[in-house]
Specification:
mainly alpha; three-stranded mixed sheet; about 65% helix; about 5% strand; elongated
Length: about 300
Amino acid sequence: VREPVMGHSELDMRMKSGELQMVVEVPPSFGRDVQRGKNPDVGYWVDGSGTTAETINGYAQGVHSLWQQRYAERLQPGSAMGVSVENRYLYNPDVLSLPAMVPAVIPLLLMMIPAVLAALSVVREKELGSIINLYVTPVRRSEFLLGKQLPYVLFAFASSVLLVLMAVFVFKVPIKGSIPLLMGSLFIYCILSTGLGMLCSSVTRSQIAVIFLTLVATMMPAAQLCGLTDPVPNDGSLSSIIGNIYPTTHMLLISRGVFNKGLHLVDMRIPVLILAAEIVVICGLGILSQRKQER
């Protein structure tokens, strides 16, 4: 099987960005070789940086077996003609679990824990009654929430630095791409996770309730809909819409891209811009939904 005819072409960039997870290379003489009874080669190039590489390869092998069963005997009755399939895993040739999971766990943890802590910081004041200080002072809602959010943003970013160091030195997953891209994206992501916590705190008054609401709003979408273990759905359903706009989806692309694919800002500019735009939406909703006085 030849090397994939991509180089630095559009297909290569689309696979690196996560838009494509498998490329099938069918030789130009495939149909002619089949008719002549030869055994042509078909190449499958699978993105091995995620946890779906083995599943994708299984589907490819299943399609190959189905083709053999339906057409091989009809084209060459009584012959042993077949099509040789060669699969190659890009970015993680040995399909190891650590390079696929460690970069993905970092965004998952940074979405859940900082969001819960940020939400509790506001709801705790509601339960204790100290929130009354906000109501009797000229402090704006934006100033109050940003002041509450900033310490947790710094805490979350410090945690992200420790998680990246653990990934490199404890789990031995090297960073192949741009470190400034990774750290800058994680800082934006920390603002988003704490902003989600602030948004959840604006609609609850109980610490137990806000913990439950924040975990549901962060853990479930991040683990189920954002490509952690399964591809992000693109069927137009509600889960597809949530998965494509949720911040964890784009942070997973950046994290896996930097760790496993050696990507830089020029390769991940679209996910970074999406994360930056979501700061305005999430933090803006948190400020607007926070009441200046209790009803």
